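New to this. Explain the following:
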Amino acid sequence: KRQHEEAKLLPYPHFNTTRGWGWSFMDDGNRWESIYDKRWRWAYHAAHSDQGLWLYLAKFAFQDVSIVIGDKLQNWIPGKNGKPKKILEDKFVPELERRGLLSVMPPRPKDTNFSCNLPRTRFKCLEIPYKDFVHFSGENKPWQHGLVHSRKARSWYGEARNWFEELKKLNKRFDIGLDVDNWRENHTEYMGESPFGYIARHVDHSVVIQKQKLEKERADNDAE
């Protein structure tokens, strides 16, 4: 509630990059960290959106989280004065091996394409957990198209097919009621577009808010 009230007093886009979701990296003396960067402000991609909120909740609100950064593992727990305390920083895969966990890891998926082979880092996405991700970016979400979509690259279909295979299992197990085999005919009408945009940018949120505002104004005028 406090966060919402304070945000109303801020200029557009109503997000303070110093305090972010309610935590100041500068006051804490502990920068956020990525594979190739460390900084003091809530100004990384989607810091104002889901990715910022998840970091705030896990590391600063709950203070109970394991974070994988490249090939590095960090464990955080509650510390003194309400600040999180780092109790472990080590190489991720060797740490799993020391704890005897590699033998119980799930098998590698058939198709993965998660890419973080950035020019600014020597780290390559060849190890867990990165090799276990498939990243459907932009408008390439399987639920938007089904498996019949001529504009998609051939490699997309293997990854999308695996996604639908897993959805079938969940659909059957939990009796969700989806018609997975006839997805395009029955579900793309409602899932063909992303109502909140495709990139977590301020402008995407603004467009949605303005659209909803106009629709409400039209509805009010029609009611009159």
About this structure: Strands lie at 32-33, 38-39, 65-69, 72-78, 84-91. DSSP finds nine helices and five strands in the chain.
